[in-house]
Amino acid sequence: MILNNDPLGIRSVDIKYEGSTRATQYCIDDFMKRLYGSRKITDMTILTCQNYHALMLCFENRDLVVFIKSGLTSGYPGEGPKGTSLIIRLAEEAGITIKELNAAPSLLKRINSSLATIKDVELIKKNSKESLNYDRLCLPNVDNEYVKRAKESFKKNKDIIFVRTENEKTKDTVELDRAKALKLLQEIHDAVVKSKKTSLLTKMVMGAKIISIIKDLYDLTDYIQQ
To answer: Rounded CA gap, 206 and 201, in Å?
Structure first.
């Protein structure tokens, strides 16, 4: 009988699937969310099958693997190759180890169907190599200026505040909870309006409530700025 040292699967790897096989922009967005998220990406494997590319992202804490589905392409001018080039440039800029593996169609199909296994992950880690044909995968027009515009567009459209100090090696983000902030402001407004129509005792209670709401709002602001 084989002893099961992890009966609850506590030490298992969490495999997640993001991006899209039909929209390059979704692949870019999901990669950038991970890139600027709280978990640091340590290495990225480009899984190449013909002119289609999926990605496997590995993280510092090693309990998570994220697959970006094969909405990325190469070999011709267009949005698919631009997306592939942009992601490689961003990964380089962040100091992520970039590897590549020629993947069998069956492996890419499992990834695109959200059916990859731990055995697939181990196979990719074992066989991927740090050797890229940059002329094939990186378009010349995806330069530093292009990357800068893409980052600015992402920050603007995704309502993300980038929190970074000079000596930080990782990029973290905090998503501004606009809905919560607006709700708190609306509660302050409603409480003020209501206090004008009530007795002195009720006004004192309403005043305390307003102070409590304002404190919650400041706590939210402090959290975002940390």
So the answer is: 9
* pLDDT digit string, tens, across residues 150-176: 999 988 877 555 543 333 433 333 344
Contact of 119 with 12, CB cutoff 8 Å: no
Residue 132: partners with Cβ closer than 8 Å, 6 or more residues away: 46, 88, 98, 100
Nearest CA among 106, 122, 147 for reference residue 58: 122
pTM higher than 0.90, yes or no? no
